[in-house]
Write a structure and sequence with these properties.
151 residues, mainly alpha, 5 helices, 50% helix
Length: 151
Amino acid sequence: MKTLSNENDRREISLRLADLSATDTARWGVMSVHQMVRHLDDSYEVACGRRAVSPATGFMQGTVIKWFALSVPMRWPKGVPTRPEVEQGKGGSIPGDFVQDLASLLAAFGRFCGDSQRLLVPHPIFGKMTAANWMRWGYLHADHHLRQFGR
């Protein structure tokens, strides 16, 4: 299974992120590519404990759904709701300059991957996460949204 703990998987995601263009169009969903960049940036900042988000976890989310999302080798479904603090058009960071926002995402991605032992904050939906859980989530979340834009 792919994970950001693996250097090749980390490089893959980093290159795919760096390849994004302000003109990319979504294959599904309502976010623009610029909004997606801000969403991923916000999400990595949550994982690093640098952005607060309200919890929405429970027994099913923290056990069955977490296991399924992180362990089953299938693509994540489209349209799964996120927390309002990282949702574009609600509480997510507002896009500014695309190049600067992409650089901010790449920096947040680097922080996230840089010291996975610091990733001990609870996930807002999945609850308690190990560093390995976070690194798997980090790969899957980015992959999901990169595929959304054909990357």
